[in-house]
Amino acid sequence: MEQKIHQGRNVKRFREMLGIKQEALAFDLGNDWNQKKISMLEQKELIEDDILNQISNSLKIPVEAFQNFDEEQAVNIISNTFGEHAFSNSFNYGTINIHPIEKLISLHEEKIALYERMLKEKDEMMARLEKLINK
Q1: What percent of the chain has pLDDT over 90?
Q2: Looking at residues 19-34, what average pLDDT do you find?
Q3: CA distances, 69 to each of 23, 81, 88, 116 (Å)
Q4: Under 8 Å between Cβ of 10 and 66
Q5: What is the tens place of the pLDDT at every residue in 43-69?
Q6: Where are the alpha helices (DSSP H) in the chain?
Q7: Which residue has the higher pLDDT, 4 or 31?
Q8: Fewer beta carbons below 10 Å: N end or C end of the chain?
Q9: CA atoms lying within 13 Å on the CB side of residue 44
Q10: pLDDT of residue 81
Q11: Is the Cα dihedral 112, 115, 120, 126 positive or negative?
C-alpha cells in the first residue's frame, strides 16, 4: 500500500522548523498572499508546481523536499538507525587521562627551551656585532 505524501503538511513542517510564521511566508510570496491563504495551502495534499517553486525560493529549501518527504519513512529510518548502541563505533571507550600538572610541567619545559634558544641567538648576534665593530 503506497502512502501519499502530503505536500501542504510538508510545507508547514519545514516552515515551522525554520521558525517562520505564516504571515512572514505570505509576505515573502507577494501581495496576493496572506496568513489565511497560507493556512489553507498547508492543508492541501497536492500543491501546484509554480507555488511550490515560489515557496522553495522563499524558504531556501529544494522543491523535492516538499514533494518527497515522508515523515513515517523518516521515523522508521531514525528508529532503525539510532538504537541503543548507535554511537558505539564512534567513540573510544578508553579512559582519557589528562593530568594538568604534567601538562603544566611540559609547557614550562617548552618555555625554558624557547628561552635558551633565544639566549643562544642573542649571544650569536652579539658576537656578529662585535666582529662588525672590530673591523
Answers
A1: 52
A2: 94
A3: 24, 18, 29, 64
A4: yes
A5: 999 999 999 999 999 999 899 888 888
A6: 7-17, 22-29, 35-41, 49-59, 63-68, 71-81, 100-134
A7: 31
A8: N
A9: 15
A10: 67
A11: negative
Rounded to two decimals, the pTM is: 0.55
Contact 59, 14 (CB under 8 A): yes
List the grid coordinates of 87. 554511537
User: Cβ neighbours of residue 29 under 8 Å, at least 6 residues apart?
Assistant: 38, 54, 55, 58
Q: Report the SS3 class of residue 82.
A: coil
Under a CB-based contact definition with an 8 Å cutoff, are residues 69 and 10 in contact? yes
Q: Roughly how many angstroms between the first and final C-alpha of the chain, as a whole number?
A: 99
Question: Which pLDDT score, from 0 to 100, does residue 1 have?
Answer: 45
Q: Rounded to an integer, what distance in angstroms lies between the CA atom of residue 9 and that of residue 53? A: 16
Residue labelled with grid coordinates 501519499: 4
Cell numbers standing for residue 13: 513542517
